[in-house]
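To whoever picks this up:

The nightly regression suite flagged protein O-GlcNAc transferase as changed. Nothing in the input moved, so I suspect the structure step. Input below, exactly as stored in the fixture:
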Amino acid sequence: METADPAVAFEQGFALHRQGRLDEAERCYRSVLAGQPSHFHALHFTGLIHYQRGAHAEAADWIERAIAVDPKVPEAHSNLGLALQELQRFDEALACHQRALELEPDAAESLNNRGNVLLALNRPEEALADYDEALRRNPDFALAHNNRGNALQALGRVDEALAAYDRALQLMPDFVLALNHKGRILREMKRLDEAAAVFGRLLTLAPQLPYLPGMLFDTRLNACQWQGYDAAAAAIISAIRRGERADAPFTFFNYSLVPADQLLCARAFAAADFPPSPRPLVTGRPVRRDRIRLAYLSPDFRQHATAYLTAGLFEHHHRSHFEVFGISYGPDDQSPMRARLQAGFDRFIDVREHGDRAVAELLHQEGIDIAVDLAGYTALNRAGILAHRPAPIQVLYLGFPATMGTSFIDYLIADHQVIPPQHEPAYSEKIVRLPDSYQVNDNKRAIAEQGPSRRELGLPDRAFVFCSFNNSYKIRPAIFDVWMRLLRAVEGSVLWLLDDNPFAIAAVRREAQQRGVSPNRLVFAPRVPLDQHLARHRCADLFLDTFPCNAHTTASDALWVGLPLITLTGDTFASRVAASLLNAVGLPELVTTNLAEYEALAFKLATTPDLLAETKGRLEAQRSQAPLFDTGRTCRHLESAYIEMYERCLRGDAPSGFDVAALP
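Regenerated output under the current build:
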């Protein structure tokens, strides 16, 4: 657009901009700049147009040019900060919002923006102070109430966080961000009925909100509400195949059956939430040194399933070959397990108060050669740390049984059971296979000496006890159908389940009744300390696995105590874990490949006492020598894998998959 009067052109552009006609508005602004290259508002608003399009680097460039013309406009500094935050240049964004506040100290919007950057930098207490000050100046600032809830949640103050989201919704009843955060925190608090209601409302208000269909589906699965299960799962899978972000990887692998679908889900999630940094810290080879610097990153260095498996691993590493770092970004529960873990590393570094880039820079400064992510996309993960490429070799191990779908993870540690060669194309990582099972186990896991009696646990003294101590979200209608047929077929038998939440208990009791089984034949075990939980396994006769997400640590718990487990295996990593464990403990005959086999084997063991006794006897005889529970052996295999990765990287070879040779 050409015009003789730049003022008229700018006004035309501004009017078009307000109407959302971005391309036409930009042409007007550029016509102004053709005659007046230092026109502040044309530069600034051209930057805003790029920001609205998601072109954040271009937006930052245009706004910086505007600031060079007039550095005293607070809105420009604030908008530059927003663009830099999108680019994950958080320190620069923080400086921008600070400058905006220096120019306009009473601006609640700038305080809110600075709080957002502080929260992104993992400084929630400072962020909370900014939100509180913004609300002191503008008590009806709904966005600041919502963000205050986020800070409170990061601090673990969930009741106050929920109240903050509710206040935001009082001011804006259809506030999508606040509703989403409220639903998620209600789900975390196990108030599953309220969470499902919030997500259901969100589907009406904002059906395209990323991950919402999966979040609603997973909330219902946690409550064992299976109505419409097949249709809901199929709809989400179809959306994933269309490239939509209908679910997040951690919930998707619990019900998806096809590894290639999980790769599509992970790639979309990674691209949106954890893109590789445009400024990687490492671009070359490692430096050869006498000891490889090996760092394990986790939010779960505490009383947690991951810690129960790995504590012995860290203690077993050969210090002549490895210097072992623990990088903890989760809560410190002050437990004996936390103390043991800290002692098991050469260096234990708590990085909870540092942002992702700062942690990555710390790893780089420490010269970490191999960074091992133990969390993947599980709860409290900080995948953004490795997105900055702080180490030349980056590995996914143990905690996340699926692909991460990103370029910054080089290797995934597996075995021939969980990822057979024909499934490799469904993983973005190169596959390294250990010779036994991929899963390390701690052979020091204590079992309480004095276990409870069946009567004390609410179990019948003489009847056959089937059990499944998986979380409720892993139970599926097809598997539950089998369980109920087994209860009907094995006279007087009971099914012993984990007391996960009251909604699941009520639901499975109803489902049992509908299948002709008295709800009284379902017994629920409350959560207790691990040593007591392990001891009570001895009151069960047979563990029935779930599908398509198997028991993982839970399966090792059962086998460690001597309780046989029957599993059903599929194509995905999560559906093949128990098969890996059973093979490594010498009981491959307990692996089945379809529901009919699974049901027939369970019935045979439950009705053939001699066969069950023989199976238990072999498990008891083998478990102390089996590769599954040989912590030192698994550690040596892992070390062989790390050394091979390191040597390949030193040579300049690109990552490629390989098998680790078994120790003699």
